[in-house]
Every structure is written in structure tokens, then in C-alpha cells.
TrEMBL record:
Keywords: Membrane, Transmembrane, Transmembrane helix. It comes from Microbaculum marinum. Residues 94-183 form the DUF305 domain. Pfam families: DUF305 (PF03713). This is DUF305 domain-containing protein. InterPro entries: DUF305_CopM-like, Ferritin-like. The chain crosses the membrane at residues 7-27, 39-58, 65-84.
Length: 287
């Protein structure tokens, strides 16, 4: 067997291993290129080169080339391992592109594991909700940061103070608030039945914003409370703003930026709290 054939075999195996690392993502829209996975695939390819050559030394007669392959594989392994663990080449967008498929794995395993204990099921459901929310937020931030729209600071809750249990139970940390998925039955209580528009962070979850097709009203859930919103704009076209004093939710279509991963974005802003963006899916029922 020629050394060129050996090299082609290792290269092909490395590419195949990189692709296989995405097969445990939950949904195709969660597939993003990951620098870290690239380094891991190269690391595994270097390991495979050492193992396979060691088992097939009798098929390769050049002692000098064999030593060079072993030495090169060790160097590539060490460099790849350093890149994986140091993350020295990973920027903000690259970090999030790697985290989205990582989060997707957590969604897949948490949803499909055969869990019987209700405590574990509750934990798994909380993981699913958190990961889906963060995936939608990262999709938004990847676009923002990639085009240079960075910020100097973000909202942070006040420092903790001494108090009682009652104080703790009454204290709402604004930085930890985010719109919660809202089933259609809950939206019916505020908007009534009929054709509506909705923004979903993920196709598998309930919307975090419901809106009447005329854009005059909307509904959301925050901190366990159903909130009716007043709207302006063209909700049917996905370009509208919904608000109450102290809170604004703005949805807009992505236009040319839309793809199979997302077609709209929503900005959730508390007047005296955080502003968070999500990319997801906006649709309107016929009627």
C-alpha cells in the first residue's frame, strides 16, 4: 500500500469524523461550523494515523517515512489539543457557533432520554427550555457581533444585600427575566380566539409572542404572568412593536438574512432592565 493512499485514508477519516460529530444535534438549524470540532477531528485523525501505521508497519517499508509520520502525528496531536483547550483562536461568533450544536445535543438527550423520576424529568425540561432560549439568543448575537454591532456594557442586577427569606422571595432579578413560551390556550385568554401571528424561538416550542393580525394587540408571559400588549406596525408582515409601560417587544423580518435557521428576530427590552435579542421563526395563521 502506498503512502499517498495512507494519507488519503487518514484525511478522509478525519473529514468523516468531523461530519459525524454533528449527527447528535437535535435539529438541522442547529448545525453551525465549529472551530473546536475541527481541531478535535484533526486530533482524532492524528491519533488514527499513529494507531493504523503501528498495526500496518509491515506494509510500509520506509523507516524514515514511518518515523516522520509518527513524529508529525504527535506534533499535530499536541497542537490540536492545545488549540482545543486554550481556545486561543476562538472569537465571540466562533464560540457561539460551537455552542449552538453543543446546546442542541443537550436538547436531544434531555428530550429523548427514558426518564421516569419526575424530579429528573423536571430537571431535563428546564435544561431543554434554557438551551433553546440560549440558542435563539446566540443566533441573534452571532449576526450582531459579526457585523460589528458590539456594546460597551450590559445591564446587571444590583449587588446582593443581607435580608430575610421574605426579602429573597419578593426580590425579582431583572437580568434573569426572559419571555416564557406561551401556549395558545393562554394567548386565548388575552387575545380571544381567532387567526393570530406568533414568534417562536424554536419550531418545537410555544411562541414567546402572540399578536393579532392587525397588529393592534399582543400577548406574552413574563415571570409567570400573562401580559397584554398594545401593538403598532404591520404584524401580518412581521414588522411590529408591542409594548406596555416599562416593556417593549419588537419583531422584524430578516429579509435577505433569512435562511432555514431563522426568518425573524425579536428584541425584548425592559426599560429599567436588560435588552435581549432572539432569532427564530415568525408566522401568521390564515384568516
Amino acid at each position: 500500500m502506498s503512502y499517498l493512499r495512507f494519507g488519503a485514508m487518514i484525511l478522509t477519516s478525519t473529514v468523516v469524523m468531523f461530519v459525524l460529530m454533528y449527527l447528535n444535534t437535535y435539529a438541522w438549524e442547529h448545525v453551525f461550523y465549529s472551530e473546536t470540532r475541527t481541531y478535535m477531528a484533526i486530533l482524532m485523525g492524528a491519533t488514527m494515523a499513529v494507531v493504523m501505521l503501528a498495526f500496518m508497519l509491515g506494509m510500509y517499508s520506509s523507516r524514515r517515512l514511518n518515523i516522520a509520520i509518527f513524529a508529525g502525528a504527535v506534533i499535530v496531536f499536541a497542537l490540536s489539543l492545545w488549540l482545543v483547550r486554550s481556545q486561543v483562536t476562538v472569537s465571540g461568533p466562533s464560540y457561539m457557533s460551537a455552542m449552538i450544536p453543543h446546546h442542541s445535543i443537550a436538547v436531544m438527550t434531555s428530550e429523548r432520554a427514558q426518564i421516569r423520576d419526575p424530579r429528573v424529568r423536571k430537571l431535563a425540561d428546564e435544561i431543554i427550555a434554557a438551551q433553546r432560549r440560549e440558542i435563539a439568543e446566540m443566533r441573534y448575537l452571532i449576526a450582531e457581533v459579526s457585523r460589528g454591532d458590539t456594546v460597551a456594557e450590559i445591564y446587571e442586577d444590583p449587588a446582593a444585600e443581607a435580608g430575610t427569606l421574605d426579602d429573597a422571595l419578593a426580590n425579582t432579578l431583572l437580568a434573569e427575566l426572559d419571555p416564557a413560551p406561551m401556549p395558545a390556550a393562554e394567548a386565548d385568554r388575552l387575545l380571544g380566539e381567532g387567526a393570530r401571528c406568533a414568534f417562536n424561538r424554536s419550531p418545537e416550542t410555544d411562541p414567546i409572542l402572540w399578536a393579532s393580525r392587525d397588529g393592534g394587540s399582543g400577548a406574552m408571559k413574563l415571570n409567570g404572568v400573562l401580559i397584554a400588549l398594545e401593538g403598532t406596525g404591520d404584524a401580518a408582515a412581521g414588522d411590529a412593536t408591542f409594548e406596555v409601560p416599562g416593556l417593549t417587544m419588537t419583531v422584524r423580518p430578516l429579509g435577505d438574512e433569512a435562511d432555514w435557521r431563522s426568518d425573524a428576530e425579536l428584541i425584548f427590552a425592559l426599560e429599567e432592565g436588560p435588552t435581549v435579542g432572539y432569532r427564530g421563526f415568525y408566522s401568521c395563521a390564515a384568516g
